Amino acid sequence: MSRYLTLSCLAVLFLFPLVWSGYASLEEPSNYLEMARFGEGVGTYATNSVLVSGMTVAGTLVVSALGGYGFARFDFPGKNLLFLATLAILMVPYATILIPLYVLLGYLGLQNSLVGLSLVFVMFQLPFALFMMRNAFEALPRELEEAALVDGCGTFRAFSRILLQAVRPALITVGLFAFLASWNDFFAPLILLNDGASFTLPVAVVSMTQQTFGAIDYGMLQAGVMVMAFPCLILFIVLQRHYVRGFMSGALRG
Amino acid sequence: MTLTINRTGRKAAHSAPSARWRSRKVQGWLYAAPTAVIVGVLFIAPLVLVVWMSLNRWPLLGQATFNAPANYTKIADNPLFVDAVFFTLKYTAITTVVLSAAALGLALLVQDRKPGIGFFRTAFFLPGAVGFAAAALLFYGMLNNDFGPIDPMLQSLGITDEPVKWIGTPNMALFSTITLVIWRFAGFNMLILLTGLQAIPTEVYEAARSDGANRWQVFTKITLPLLRPTLALMLILSVTGSLLAFDQFFVFTNGGPDNSTVSMVMVVYRDAFFRFDLGGAAALSVVLLVALVGLNTLMMRRLR
To answer: What residue ranges do the domains of chain B occupy?
Structure first.
């Protein structure tokens, strides 16, 4: 029983900041109206965030599903080298390659571009995503694919019609991780985007504290926090199982 | 890897025609091509570029000129970076100890599947779903002396008489930041430890109890040793994450007061985008990169 008492006190401590932030933001509903008018308008920033997360999730799913299938079912020269190079992304601290990425995206004409930022997020997600997808495809029975091949499907038809259905749980896990990472990240957009109109929510809301001279509107700030946090909290609660499975399947073994 | 080799061996044996074999090779490459492009262009190329940049005077705008090894030799003269190294090491040491202890405590409390435990696991993890920058802003408001609820609560409980300078002194700023980090990451680390705890077979515990071991003995003689690989993983993630700290200091303390909470990555950022010295920032990045890859390798060898 004393265990439940301890747990309850701890739960109050962990949940209090979230509850307070929600309460503080709603105390004056005008907080949300003011935030909607801040800078380029919260609609612009939210749209940017949605676009970046959408492109990151889609890109990560496409690249890792194709790659995972290739790594699980085919043998080709350079396969092990490519796999190791992808996993090496985990070893290299991500903050240290953002400066060269900023320059490199400039060469590619993708500086200050939501597409460029999304591609960088896809790269950071790739080790985890590829590892998950390769394992998911390897776990499928070969018969599933062979039956499709016998029915006259090419490997790509077998892959897109049948195998993708079978690895759906892994796709959800990969997509969830990609969404949370790209929606929440602050450092990469701070470096790679330099024009207010292309800012994502975290960069825009942080700039509320650092650009305003004089008084910071704390109520509005908490409204910004809630706009950023709410989708993640809901998604996490709904897809919790998939998140935890990401841990269990050795996602962090890198 | 061995699995793959066996399977392809079998495949090659029963699909004798070499044309089909070659076509499978090509197909394999096609499936892996997007991965290869992303890794090549956005990972390998910047790795090479960061080294090249560090050997050049590389202004934010304008032509780069070769100047090696000036970017490296001037690191020692960068007083902000030298201070940042000491500060970041101190922050890493304290955070890792406190965070590991908190995560282990939480994991032990919620490891048994009892009624209601799922709710507590979710409650402890939930802050982890919130972005770190958003969490930092949340604390920035919550600990504000005029707006936040913490000061009035502490005062009405009689714990403090006047508003606390949460980020007003170097030590308090560090303390408040670590509180923020624990709130945001304890549940995440708890989840890592739970996967390790659940891999320990219950028979081991039962055997120990029937041998008359008490709780403390079970914890130190069984749980901790068997949890070692998972603890090692958590330590590596926590050390790496703390050494690269940026969001919490950039957003929450803004490096203050008096530059007392400037982390290493903040100096890299400042050199690049406020002093327009991309070459210098690249040299700092290379130093950090080599140090961290080395440290990670060392920790993996030692701890696992």
So the answer is: 18-70, 76-303
CA distance to A32, A47, B82, B232, B268, per residue, from B90 (Å): 39, 40, 13, 20, 18
Å from A97 to nearest chain B CA? 6
Class of the domain covering A41-253: mainly alpha
Percent pLDDT > 70 in chain B is 93
Give the CATH class of B76-303: mainly alpha
Tell me how far apart the alpha carbons of residues B179 and B165 are, in angstroms, rounded to a whole number: 14
Chain A residues closer than 8 Å to B43 by CB:
85, 88-89, 92, 97, 123
Q: pLDDT digit string (tens) for B165-182? A: 999 899 999 999 999 999
Look up residue B162 and give its DSSP letter: S
Output the pLDDT for position B126: 95
The verdict on a CB contact (< 8 Å) between B289 and A93 is yes
Percentage with pLDDT > 70 across chain A: 96
Alpha-helix runs per DSSP H in A108-248: 114-139, 142-150, 155-158, 164-166, 168-184, 187-192, 201-211, 218-248
Identify which of B293, B191, B132 has the alpha carbon closest to the alpha carbon of residue A89. B293
